[in-house]
Design goal:
By secondary structure, this protein is α+β, with helices and mostly antiparallel strands. Helices cover about 30% and strands about 25% of the residues. The N and C termini lie far apart (about 75 Å). About 0% of the residues are buried.
Length: about 90
Amino acid sequence: MNNYWFFEPLDKLVVTTYNKTMKQILTLLSASIFLLTGCSVPKNPEIVFGKKCLENGDQISYSWVWIQDKTLGTKPSQEACDQLPVKE
């Protein structure tokens, strides 16, 4: 018989908590990798914050965070957001 019989429930709790934490970390890591597989970083990256819009023909794209190439010819701007339809 183990001399430390009162530690046995505590050991099971610690192992269970550790396994649950590791499972959460692995799930988060797997989801992050899955979500970032379609992303590509430009050669000369620049991060722009704030609502900006980019016109591409008759389409307007907008975002609050842009990761773009510094040498890009057309850059997102706030002026392009004036052409977005107003929500009622």
